[in-house]
User: Which sequence fits this backbone?
C-alpha cells in the first residue's frame, strides 16, 4: 500500500460528515416539503432581515468593543517580563475553559432585576435599572465570552515584533505616537485581523447568549435557525435557507478580512516547502 | 513611572471583569438557601445534592465517554491522514486543506444543523445513525479532526526525511522505522492535537445540542437547568470544573517550568 493512500479514511470521513451535510443544507434550502425546487424559502428569509441586521449589528459592536478593550491589554502583557507573560496569558485563558453556558449564566445572576448589580446600586441609593433582556446585556455577554479570542492573537503578533525595529524607529526620531502608528500597529495587524474574525464569527452566529441575556426581544440568527430545527416552528427547509445565508455572510466577512492581510500567502509558502 | 501605574490599573480592571462572574458563581455554590443572589449562610448541601443527582452523573459519564472516544478516533484518523497528505501533489493538498478548514470556519450552529440533517436523512431512509450517543461521537470526531491535522502536519513537515531512510538502510522494516523514528518526533504534535480534541469535545454544546437526540451531555444538562427552575447545583458544577481546570493548568505550568530549568 502506498503512503499516499493513508489519507483515504480521513478523506471519506470528511466527505460524509462535512461535504454531504453542507450539500444537504444546500438542497433543503432550495426545495419545499414535497422536494420540488423553490426559492420561496429565501423569500421568507427576507422577512427576517431585521433579525439579520440585529445580529450583524450586535456582532459588530461586540467585535469593536473587544478590539478597544483587548488591544491595550495585549500590548501591556507584551511589556511585562517574559516569565510573567506566560502566567498572565494562562490566567486570561482560564475562564475560557469553563463552559460558556456557565459563564453566561453567571452574568444572568449579576444582571437580573433583583440581581447583584441592582442590589449593589440600591445600597448606593440608585433606583433599580433593568439590565437583563436588553441588547446591551447581549453585547456584554458576547464581549465577556469572546474577549480572549481577541487578546491572544494580538498578543502573539505583538510579542513576535523584533524589539530592535521599535528601537530603530526611536533612534530615527519617532515619538511614542509615531512608533505606535507606523511600527507597532502595522506589524500587529495580522493579529488584529484574526482577532476580529475569531470574535465576529461566533458572535454573529451565537444563539444561547441572546436567549439567556437578551430575553425574547433580542432574537439573533442563531436563535432563528434553532427554532426551525428544534423549536416550535419546525421547518428544516427555512432553517437550511437561513443557515445557507449565514454561511455566505460569514465567508464574505472572512474574505473581506483576508483582503487586509497578506501574511497568509507567506505562511503557505513556508508550509508547502 | 506613571505609565506603569496605568498599566497595572488597566490590567487589574481587566482581571476583575474576567473573574468577578466566576467568583460570584463559586461563592453562591456554598450558599445555604436556594437564592442565587442573597447570601444566607455557608453550606455544602448543593454539592451533596449534585453527587446524588443521577441525571447529572449520567451526563458527566456521557461527556467523558464521548470526549475520550472522539478524541482518540480523531487523533488516529488525523495522524494517519497527515502521513498521506504530505505525499499528495500540491493541488490535492490545497484542496484537502481547504476542506479541512470548513468545520473550523463554519459557524458551529451550521455544522450542527448539517450533521442533524444528515443523521435524520440517513435514519429516515436507511434506518441507520439514529441520533444518540453514537451520532454524538461521530459529530465530535468530525469537528475535532481538523484540529488534529493542523497540529500534527507542521510537526511532520519538520522531520528530516533522511533519518527515516537511514533507519531503513540500517535494516529497520518500514513499519518499525515509523514507530522508532517518525512517531517519537511528531509525538508533541499528536499529544497537543489530542488534548485539544478532548477539551473541545468536553466543552461543546452547540453541535451536541443538534445531534444528540435525547442523550444528555453535561453542557446539555446545564443548558436545560438554566431553562428550568434554577438550582445552585449549577454553581456547584462550575466550582468543581473551575477547580479541576485550575489544578490541571497549574500542573502543566509547573511541569513546563521544570523542563526549562
Assistant:
Amino acid at each position: 500500500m502506498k503512503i499516499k493512500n493513508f489519507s483515504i479514511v480521513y478523506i471519506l470521513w470528511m466527505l460524509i460528515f462535512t461535504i454531504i451535510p453542507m450539500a444537504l443544507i444546500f438542497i433543503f434550502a432550495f426545495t419545499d416539503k414535497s422536494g420540488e425546487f423553490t426559492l420561496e424559502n429565501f423569500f421568507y428569509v427576507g422577512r427576517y432581515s431585521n433579525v439579520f441586521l440585529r445580529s450583524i449589528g450586535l456582532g459588530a459592536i461586540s467585535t469593536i468593543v473587544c478590539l478597544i478593550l483587548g488591544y491595550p491589554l495585549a500590548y501591556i502583557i507584551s511589556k511585562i517580563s517574559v516569565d510573567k507573560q506566560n502566567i498572565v496569558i494562562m490566567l486570561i485563558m482560564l475562564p475560557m475553559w469553563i463552559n460558556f453556558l456557565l459563564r453566561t449564566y453567571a452574568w444572568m445572576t449579576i444582571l437580573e432585576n433583583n440581581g447583584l448589580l441592582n442590589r449593589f446600586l440600591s445600597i448606593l441609593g440608585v433606583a433599580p435599572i433593568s439590565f437583563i433582556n436588553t441588547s446591551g446585556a447581549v453585547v456584554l455577554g458576547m464581549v465577556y465570552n469572546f474577549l480572549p479570542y481577541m487578546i491572544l492573537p494580538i498578543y502573539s503578533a505583538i510579542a513576535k515584533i523584533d524589539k530592535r525595529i521599535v528601537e530603530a524607529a526611536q533612534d530615527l526620531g519617532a515619538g511614542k505616537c509615531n512608533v505606535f502608528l507606523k511600527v507597532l500597529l502595522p506589524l500587529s495587524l495580522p493579529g488584529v485581523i484574526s482577532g476580529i474574525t475569531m470574535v465576529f464569527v461566533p458572535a454573529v452566529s451565537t444563539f444561547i447568549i441572546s436567549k439567556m441575556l437578551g430575553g425574547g426581544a433580542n432574537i439573533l440568527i442563531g436563535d432563528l435557525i434553532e427554532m426551525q430545527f428544534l423549536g416550535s416552528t419546525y421547518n428544516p427547509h427555512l432553517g437550511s435557507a437561513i443557515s445557507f445565508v449565514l454561511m455566505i455572510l460569514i465567508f464574505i466577512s472572512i474574505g473581506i478580512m483576508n483582503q487586509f492581510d497578506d501574511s497568509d500567502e507567506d505562511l503557505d509558502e513556508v508550509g508547502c516547502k | 513611572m506613571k505609565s506603569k501605574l496605568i498599566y497595572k490599573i488597566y490590567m487589574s480592571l481587566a482581571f476583575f471583569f474576567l473573574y468577578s462572574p466566576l467568583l460570584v458563581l463559586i461563592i453562591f455554590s456554598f450558599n445555604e438557601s436556594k437564592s442565587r443572589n442573597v447570601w444566607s449562610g455557608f453550606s455544602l448541601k448543593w454539592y451533596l445534592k449534585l453527587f446524588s443527582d443521577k441525571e447529572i452523573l449520567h451526563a458527566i459519564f456521557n461527556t467523558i465517554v464521548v470526549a475520550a472516544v472522539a478524541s482518540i478516533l480523531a487523533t488516529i484518523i488525523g495522524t494517519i491522514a497527515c502521513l498521506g497528505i504530505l505525499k499528495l501533489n500540491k493541488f490535492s493538498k490545497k484542496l484537502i486543506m481547504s476542506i479541512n478548514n470548513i468545520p473550523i470556519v463554519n459557524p458551529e450552529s451550521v455544522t450542527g444543523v448539517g450533521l442533524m440533517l444528515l443523521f435524520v436523512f440517513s435514519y429516515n431512509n436507511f434506518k441507520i445513525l439514529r441520533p444518540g450517543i453514537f451520532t454524538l461521537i461521530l459529530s465530535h470526531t468530525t469537528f475535532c479532526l481538523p484540529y488534529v491535522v493542523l497540529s500534527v502536519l507542521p510537526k511532520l513537515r519538520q522531520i528530516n526525511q533522511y533519518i527515516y531512510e537511514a533507519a531503513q538502510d540500517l535494516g529497520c522494516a518500514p513499519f518499525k522505522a515509523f514507530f522508532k523514528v517518525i512517531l517519537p518526533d511528531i509525538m508533541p504534535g499528536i499529544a497537543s492535537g489530542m488534548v485539544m480534541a478532548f477539551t473541545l469535545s468536553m466543552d461543546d454544546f452547540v453541535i451536541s445540542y443538534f445531534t444528540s437526540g435525547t442523550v444528555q451531555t453535561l453542557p446539555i444538562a446545564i443548558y436545560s437547568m438554566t431553562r428550568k427552575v434554577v438550582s445552585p447545583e449549577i454553581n456547584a458544577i462550575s466550582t468543581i470544573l473551575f477547580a479541576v481546570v485550575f489544578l490541571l493548568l497549574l500542573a502543566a505550568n509547573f511541569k513546563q517550568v521544570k523542563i526549562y530549568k
Remarks:
- The longest helix of chain B spans residues 54-87.
- Chain B touches chain A through 77 residues (CB under 8 Å).
- The mean pLDDT of chain B is 89.
- The CA atoms of residues 102 and 146 of chain B lie 9 Å apart.
